[in-house]
Amino acid sequence: MLSVTLDPSGTFLTLESTAGPQRFHAIWLRDNAQDAETRAPGNGQRLIALRDIPADTRIAAAEIAPDGALQVRFMPEDKTVRFDPAWLAAHAYDHAAPTARGWLPDGIQAWDAGLMAAVPCGDFAQLQQGGAPLRDWLGQIVRFGFAKVVNAPVEPGALFRIVDLFGFVRETNYGRHFEVRTEVNPTNLAFTGLGLQAHTDNPYRDPVPTIQVLYCLESSAAGGENMVVDGFAAALRLREENPEEFDLLADHCARFEYAGEAGVCLTSRRPMIELAPDGELTGIRFNNRSCAAITEVPFDKMEAYYAAYRRLGEIIDDTAMELTFRLEPGEAFVVDNTRVLHARKGYSGEGTRWLQGCYADKDGLRSAHDAMCREGVLEAAE
């Protein structure tokens, strides 16, 4: 049963349901009206600006209509708007603010080496068909920050077909894609046989490429196994061990730089642990190769900052935090580059190891996933 109570001031109402009471302000409700004069029926975008809504908007009356909708009359416009209670419940904001810095929203799951028993993975042929397999694979990337692809074609440029599943390639100074194999006089250590510490790519960019795809074409060299580490899990472990060290890495900017080729000097100034204003853990930037001189930390905190930086690196290097797998030709993995660090073990000069990589953007991936989820909900409701 639904019921509604209007505050005598008219500035807010309280909607009572089996889930408990939820308060909504008059100005918020008016701004979120779904009527055809306020929102375009086709795409849901607002047709008015906030300046078009009277600053002294109040609720004159509110009731539950016979069909279960919440009906609200606003003054001074004398405008009546209907609201879906289910929509209001999904967008309710009358709840306690998070108190812990570094909280994760619903749908995001931190992980460690225990995920090795169930590595997120999708079969390329099934993914190309769309539908539930693609939706679920994209959902795994949203939840865990990475997923593998298997049984894809072994041909140069096939990595673009993976990006086509959810978005568009982001071109950089490395080109539309880049080759990962041993080179003479490489412009980047990624193009050698050296082992690499787990890292996020391109922290020297603003914004960073938020999705990375690495696609295997040849893999006969000894070694070279790929590793991934959940940067969110590493940051939360640091917070649990030492909240002060977590705060140091979240409250002060590091500097990152890349100037390894002619005409390129990329720099950024961002914290290694990025938080939203309300404390949500939103990003990790960690790359020992690209970290420039850190100058944003006060003198009296620099030693403690370096201790925190060292400890985060030790946590990232802990084998209990990593998943390790070998990519075979026709296999790839996709990572959320704002969260999941990737690495590889060193490999010998015997045999070959050839991967191609490219970047894309997380908004496209999330858009594809969310659109498929909404379409599924609508189909189930019909």
From TrEMBL:
<dbReference type="InterPro" id="IPR038492">
    <property type="entry name" value="GBBH-like_N_sf"/>
</dbReference>
<dbReference type="Pfam" id="PF02668">
    <property type="entry name" value="TauD"/>
</dbReference>
<dbReference type="InterPro" id="IPR042098">
    <property type="entry name" value="TauD-like_sf"/>
</dbReference>
<comment type="similarity">
    <text>Belongs to the gamma-BBH/TMLD family.</text>
</comment>
<feature type="domain" description="TauD/TfdA-like">
    <location>
        <begin position="123"/>
        <end position="359"/>
    </location>
</feature>
<dbReference type="GO" id="GO:0046872">
    <property type="term" value="F:metal ion binding"/>
</dbReference>
<keyword id="KW-0223">Dioxygenase</keyword>
<keyword id="KW-0560">Oxidoreductase</keyword>
<dbReference type="GO" id="GO:0008336">
    <property type="term" value="F:gamma-butyrobetaine dioxygenase activity"/>
</dbReference>
<dbReference type="GO" id="GO:0045329">
    <property type="term" value="P:carnitine biosynthetic process"/>
</dbReference>
<dbReference type="InterPro" id="IPR050411">
    <property type="entry name" value="AlphaKG_dependent_hydroxylases"/>
</dbReference>
<keyword id="KW-0479">Metal-binding</keyword>
<protein>
    <submittedName>
        <fullName>Gamma-butyrobetaine dioxygenase</fullName>
        <ecNumber>1.14.11.1</ecNumber>
    </submittedName>
</protein>
<keyword id="KW-0408">Iron</keyword>
<dbReference type="InterPro" id="IPR003819">
    <property type="entry name" value="TauD/TfdA-like"/>
</dbReference>
